[in-house]
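fold-stage: in
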Amino acid sequence: MLNIAFIAHDRKKEEIVNFVIAYEHVFVGNTLYSTGTTGQRIMENTKLSIHRFLSGPLGGDQQIGALIAQNEMDLVIFLRDPLMAQPHEPDITALLRLCDVHGIPVATNVATAEILVRALDRGDFGWRELVDLHRPRLGV
């Protein structure tokens, strides 16, 4: 069982809902998290249960980032709108940076999300053990 987060900018919410509907069978049995409205829209259109944080601009991105920093997140699907400036861009950058620092796969578009979810569906997601073996220990 993995911890998976869903985030989508406003103009990408329909796209993430359709994506999750298409792969609902893969997400069942995992622990799912999301920013507020994205999670609500997904739950309204699927049978999935999602722990919803605040909306992204109100701190939801940072709440998911806290799980990443505590090594409690395995995969992030964050459908970003690259053509629209976001008022909370520093939070978005911080979230993506945390994914890089902690070796967490993050998909920022449907093409990449599909590759990651298909790997998850095949059971080909053993990267977590490899990342933990090679992660530098702080304070050592």
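fold-stage: in (second)
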Amino acid sequence: MKKEIFRAAFVCSIPILCSYIFVSIAYGIMMQNAGFPWFASLFVSLTVYTGAFQFVLITFLSSGASLLTVALTAFLMNSRQTFYSLTFLKEFRAMGKRKLYMIHTMTDETYAVNYTLDLPEKEKQDTMFLVAFLSRCYWMIGSVLGGVLGQLLPVELNGIDFCMTALFVIIFIDQWEKTKKHTPALAGLAIGTLCLVLFGQQRFMLPALLGVSGLLVFMQAGGRAHESE
């Protein structure tokens, strides 16, 4: 049974593998080009593990930015994951000691994949944990490979980060096909686009999440009130 769960988790994590391995290789190469050895990429991936910010961190480490700047930027860039965790409060609470690991390894990609799991409670918890574990392994392996390749080969990876965008498009289409009610997806598209225009590319994520979450909570409360009547 455990082998079946591991196999299922691996299959679910294949989209993450296809994106993480290339983006993390690019990250490792950039770290090496900035003067850091391969084990520095591994250490950062073990402790920080937040893809987008790790690329920004390269600049901070190279320029000697203050700890306050690093901490504040990390908080703002990853505050969206606070909303993700609300979806899994029940599952995380039931996972015991594994809960802390699940919180640490929560990413956009693991959230999107684990959210689509339709399994019995215990099997779902085990699969979620394995998806998070495997995804972290993919990222760390790619980071080390990138650091080593950066020392051996003059590799150009312009545009490789687009595979992350492609991953989210695939996951969005998969969720669209699996659900009959598309209000959350349409709300996300509309509010996300509006916030992008109003706040710009660097600042739109948090306002968009707040807007979408508020709208969905309001709609859910209105639906319950209508049912009670």
